Amino acid sequence: MSRLVVVSNRVATPTESKGSSGGLAVGVFGALKDMGGVWFGWSGDTVTEGASHRPPHIVQEGNVTFATVDLSRRDYDQYYKGFSNGTLWPVFHYRNDLAHFDRHEYAGYRRVNAWLARQLLPLLKPDDVIWVHDYHLIPFAEELRLAGVKNRIGYFLHIPFPAPQVILNVPVHEELLKSLSCYDVVGFQTDEDEQAFQDYIVRHAHGVAKGRDVQAYGRKLRTGVYRIGVFPDEIADQAARYAKRKEVRELRTSVENRKLVMSVDRLDYSKGIVERFKAFEQLLESSPDLQNQVSLVQIAPPTRSDVATYQQIRRTLEYEAGRINGRFSGLNYTPIRYLNRRYDRWVLMSLFRLAQVGFVTPLRDGMNLVAKEYVAAQDPDDPGVLVLSRFAGAAAELDAALIVNPHDIAGMAEALIRGLKMPLDERRERHQSMLAALRTNDLGVWRDTFLRDLKASA
Ligand code: GDG
Are residues 142 and 267 in the same domain? Predict the structure, then answer.
């Protein structure tokens, strides 16, 4: 039987994979345990130039090998901070205004991909199935192919694939798309993403796309839509089990009898947090009966904080939270609780269950797992309401949410009010429908369908 080799920018630790953090790491580790194999990628550490080119650090956990490498400061600056997060992330989220392009960074991105591929070679066996994840590693398969690797190699893009007109802004778009064609299966979160990729192939690469079969740059590949999910029963169990713990009791006591709107995001400009704060302000302004009666808890652990655009969004949010709280706070009331720190997963799931509204309004998002986690964490007898951006991949499945346009501040405020006042019957009906969608397409289905297609390819 073939082994599975997973390649991602960051590799979860064995402890994270076994359940303490939940989510994606646990899902991927499940497949690795079933098939045996290797999880390969960056350790998360940067070291001096000379020390960075050491062979992978190996940790064995049963039949799974965790193999990680360190990056030099220059690799990190060019590959991770530069081209991945300064060019690809903003452009793929339709934010050309926040993107920059630097040839040296792109050269570093390619150099690190080539180097990572060479590090993986000695760990590979001929019939291993290789599954590469996300925008940091677009050229990875091309580098393996150049080294003579004939294995099946699949790629899953966790973020949106933008319309061709948008990706044309990246000066090296052709090289990137040519690199993608070296995979056997390229997977996307939504139909729109898959369509955008195929449109590029047909219009700009003189390729052919028939159904899921694509021919371009002298290669044949398949595309597919694999909507990433969660394990809803595990989340429900966690959310209910920890309801009596200190952190959860503290929040419940501190909000007294007020209603709670809950948001959790990595601190990122793609998540629409500024617009969300303004919508909450509008709700307070337009509904005096809700003033002092409802709080927004926004958990936003900082990420990529050495990238200038992330420093800017952080300043803007601090300003907006301060301004709105200055306007509407009372001696015993803070409308927006803005928390720049990371919480344990069980705390988040328990807080989701306490909240009457889950407020998830990204400007663009590949899927958005928080939306799914919020739904899964609800008490089915008395569930909260999800207010969800139409630009989250999750909106395709969670159409029983209150779907909003995150640029429409007044529309979001109205949806919040509707959510806060929604009768129990309607809440239950919407929740049941969304939970059914989560169950049909859970994290296991995502993983198994992708791997089934990859194994059947070539
Ligand atoms: C990318 C795509 C796609 C957040 N804060 C804390 C914490 N989290 C957890 C959430 C959730 C995960 O992080 C975030 O996942 P999202 O899907 O919401 O967003 P991205 O991080 O941008 O993920 C996205 C995803 O990949 C998967 O394909 O859906 O579109 O952008 O699980 O709960 N977890 C803990 N503490 C926190 O403070 N423990």
Answer: no
d(CA 1, CA 319): 56
Residue pointed to by tokens 């005096």: 288
290-to-38, 358, 406, 424 alpha-carbon distances in Å: 53, 17, 21, 19
Tell me the pLDDT tens digit for each residue of 345-374: 999 999 999 999 999 999 999 999 999 999
Q: Measuring from atom 35 of ligand 1, which residue has the nearest CA?
A: 345
Rounded to an integer, what distance in angstroms lies between the CA atom of residue 375 and that of residue 357?
A: 10
**How many H helices and E strands in the chain?**
18, 16
Q: Which two tokens stand for residue 274?
A: 């500024």
Annotated catalytic residue 408: no
The distance between the two most distant Cα atoms of the chain, rounded to a whole number of Å, is 68
**What atom of ligand 1 comes closest to residue 21's alpha carbon?**
39
* Residues 196, 180: Cα–Cα separation, whole Å: 14
Which DSSP category does 408 fall into?
-
Say whether both 125 and 222 belong to one domain: yes
Of these residues, 184, 365, 442, 453, which one is catalytic?
365
Query: Cα 262 from chain centroid?
Result: 18
61 CA distance to ligand 1 middle (Å)? 25
C-alpha 295/C-alpha 305 separation (Å) is 27
Question: Complex ipTM, two decimals?
Answer: 0.99
Q: Are 225 and 237 contained in the same domain?
A: no
Q: Is the dihedral of CA 106, 111, 116, 122 positive or negative?
A: positive
pLDDT the model gives residue 22: 61
Please tell me the distance from the alpha carbon of residue 406 to that of residue 402, in angstroms, as a whole number: 12
> In a 3-state reduction of DSSP, which class is residue 441?
coil
Q: In whole angstroms, give the CA distance from residue 325 to residue 240.
A: 31
Report the separation in Å between the CA atom of 266 and the middle of ligand 1, taken as the mean of its atom positions: 7
pLDDT tens digits along 82-129: 999 999 999 999 999 999 999 999 999 999 999 999 999 999 999 999
CB atoms within 10 A of CB 309: 19
* Domain ranges, residue 250: 232-439
The total number of structural domains that make up the chain:
2
- 114 and 262 part of one domain: no
* Cβ proximity of 173 and 167 under 8 Å: yes
CA 64 to chain centre: 24
Ligand 1 binding pocket includes 350 (Cβ within 6 Å): no
Q: Whose CA is nearest to atom 20 of ligand 1?
A: 368
Pick from 367, 373, 388 the residue to mutate for probing ligand 1's pocket: most ligand atoms within 8 Å of its CB: 367
- Which CATH number does the domain housing residue 299 bear? 3.40.50.2000
Strands (E) in 108-193, as ranges, are 129-133, 152-156, 185-188
Active site residue 57: no
Tokens of 330: 């009372």
